[in-house]
Amino acid sequence: MTLGPVDHVAVVVRSIEAALPRYAALFGWHPAEAPRIFASQRVRLCFLLTGPDPAAKIELIEPIDGESGVARFLAARGEGLHHVCLRSDDLPADLAALAAAEAQLIDREPRPGAHGRVAFIHPRTLNGVLWELLERR
Which among 48, 90, 107, 116 would be 20 to 30 A from 22, CA to CA? Predict the structure, then answer.
């Protein structure tokens, strides 16, 4: 497999605008770019830089309506950790290796993500944590 390092850790928030000042005040982290809508997932997202690239980032995710999976997550669990994302050099091969190792995959094929192709591993596979795999553009 070609997984790693960590690309980002995603945190679900009710409001990106409300969360940004806390991250800036406590850690000095600022957005890599303005928050933007990722329409296919019905969310707004914003990546915070935690250090010089290629350091891991923090992704803030805010639902834009009550219909998305992120909105359901927020309603059920409140704000907090949503997923950890690992980089992949060969996402199809990594998915095949994970399937062979009996990981429960949400995505058996890569799909478009905010910064490349992505796939998710179900939280039941690894102690309740949702894992995203990212093959950057």
Answer: 116
